[in-house]
Amino acid sequence: MSNVSKSQIKKEMRQLYPAPAPQRKGEFLRELSYPKSGPLETIAVQIGYIRKFVWILSLLLVAAALAFGNGYWQSAEDYGMLWCVSAVMPLLAALAVTETFRSGVYGMAELEMSAKHNLQQILLIRMGAIGGADFLLIISALPFLVRYERISIFRGAVYLMTPWLCTCALAFQIEKYTKGRDGVWYCCALGLFFCGIGLAAGNFQETVHGNGAFYVWLIVFFAFAAILAKQIWQICHEAENWSRSLFLTG
Q1: DSSP states of 157-195
Q2: Which of 114, 116, 199, 247 has the most CB atoms at less than 10 Å from its CB?
Q3: For 195-246, how does the pLDDT look when each residue is reduced to its tens digit (9 = 90+)?
Q4: Helix 153-177 to helix 180-200 angle, to the nearest 10 degrees?
Q5: Average model confidence (pLDDT) for the chain?
Q6: In angstroms, rounded to a whole number, what is the distance separating the alpha carbons of residues 166 and 94?
Q7: Given this model, what pLDDT does residue 250 score?
Q8: For the whole model, what pTM was predicted?
Q9: CA–CA separation, 163 and 150 (whole Å)
Q10: What ranges in the chain are assigned the alpha helix state H?
């Protein structure tokens, strides 16, 4: 018995005692007398649940990267600002994913699954809000890159979005197969790992961000964009697979 892991026991318990399917849930919710909220109000409420430090830290990371990159650009070779901003993108992605799946950390996922707007809808709203904010930060950084690095907006967007997409896609997989606070630590470690790789690439800027390597960036960009799109589709259409690990907290 001592050789059997806790996760294996839980897996076998789920197979032996499957949770009963909810009976007439949709009819119950339609007939329930309660103040009904529209889509915009639901989105506003979910955005309000996102912790303020996530917005502030994301903004500070990009601002600090631009400031440091500006000083580095004036005293070093090309791509100094691009190097700094690109290196913090994995940290923004790790923040976005961990905040999106915060329900599982506090053991609230099962409760949210029973609400009118189920867990999958809530996850998509939160991810859309934080991802949209990250996208705005990327757009705000692009004019500086175009001016100082003399690259096109499209090329700058690929350089910034690629590490963000890579981290998001891998962090989604971590959240799918881990539970509770373990997922947070693994996602944070993943973000720091990719950030470290980005910082270490500072000595090879011409090779990493030169014209010859841009096609590699494009391939990675589209590959991980497709992976992330598939993961979002799975959250929408394969609810059981994605929600199972979220309420196995502890």
Answers
A1: HHHHHHHHHHHHHHHHHHHHH--HHHHHHHHHHHHHHHH
A2: 247
A3: 999 888 767 777 777 777 889 999 999 999 999 999 888 877 765 555 554 5
A4: 150
A5: 78
A6: 10
A7: 42
A8: 0.74
A9: 21
A10: 6-16, 25-31, 39-49, 52-75, 80-100, 102-105, 109-113, 119-149, 153-177, 180-200, 205-209, 214-237, 239-243
